[in-house]
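debug: dumping io for the single-chain case to check the tokenizer round-trip. Nothing else runs in this session.
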Amino acid sequence: MEIKKPGDSTVQRVVEKLILERLANEHGISKLPDCLKKVKIDGCFKADECEPILVEIWAHQGKAKAGQQSKVMKDMCRLLLAEKILDIPCKKLIVVTDTEAVSFLEKSWQGEFAEKFGIHTIVIEIPQEEKDKIVDAQKEQCR
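debug: decoded output
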């Protein structure tokens, strides 16, 4: 039996990788430019788009706790830094698997931040089986 460390996010990372592959198929596969390696964003796509698409993915189910809200804000900051490094306008996306996870953005300063800096949130549907795995992993991660 494999012993997991508290906070192990393996399940979420697997789902995030699947979402990234799905986005790559939709927008064209693009390698993360070397200049963005330090920023560690999840993805960068160019394909036929007029502007690059910078992506951060968060596979979470349910309402975000304060620390998780902070994680989303850090992801937004990384997207802005990546855009600044590229020195060209980019489409910036926070991709989630559940609308409730980013419901805190509604009517909050964080939502205003996203709007003012052109950061869009999109929800990608995943199979119920994957949602259930995430929920189970989140329960195990609670400390």
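debug: round-trip ok. The helical segments are 10-27, 66-86, 109-116, 128-141.
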